[in-house]
Amino acid sequence: MYLSRFLSIHALWVTVSSVMQPYPLVWGHYDLCKTQIYTEEGKVWDYMACQPESTDMTKYLKVKLDPPDITCGDPPETFCAMGNPYMCNNECDASTPELAHPPELMFDFEGRHPSTFWQSATWKEYPKPLQVNITLSWSKTIELTDNIVITFESGRPDQMILEKSLDYGRTWQPYQYYATDCLDAFHMDPKSVKDLSQHTVLEIICTEEYSTGYTTNSKIIHFEIKDRFAFFAGPRLRNMASLYGQLDTTKKLRDFFTVTDLRIRLLRPAVGEIFVDELHLARYFYAISDIKVRGRCKCNLHATVCVYDNSKLTCECEHNTTGPDCGKCKKNYQGRPWSPGSYLPIPKGTANTCIPSISSIGNPPKFNRIWPNISSLEVSNPKQVAPKLALSTVSSVQVANHKRDCECFGHSNRCSYIDLLNTVICVSCKHNTRGQHCELCRLGYFRNASAQLDDENVCIECYCNPLGSIHDRCNGSGFCECKTGTTGPKCDECLPGNSWHYGCQPNVCDNELLHCQNGGTCHNNVRCLCPAAYTGILCEKLRCEEAGSCGSDSGQGAPPHGSPALLLLTTLLGTASPLVF
Question: Which residues pair up as cystines (predicted)?
Answer without folding.
Answer: 462-474, 482-491, 530-539
